[in-house]
Amino acid sequence: MIRRIALAAVVLVVFALGVGLGQALNDNPQPGGRQTLIRTLEPLPLAPAARETVTVTVQNK
């Protein structure tokens, strides 16, 4: 009678360990998986356009 109880307890402990190991292995992600990242890039402000002053000299003849 005691052997049957001890055997049942051992079977239950082994079963619980197996279930725990199975859950632990199932929870880990697979290595090398894909990951998609989406980012929105804001445009940078433009510097004001440099105005170039040009002097033209014309001689009258």
Report the average pLDDT across residues: 86
Percent strand: under 5%
Radius of gyration over all CA atoms, rounded: 39 Å
Uncertain segments:
none
Percent helix, as a range, is: 40-55%
Summarize the structure.
This protein is an all-alpha fold and 61 residues long.
Structure keywords:
single chain, 61 residues, mainly alpha
Could you explain the architecture of this structure?
The protein is an all-alpha fold and 61 residues long. It contains 1 helix and no strands.
Topology record:
Layout (H helix, E strand, L loop, with lengths): L1 H26 L34
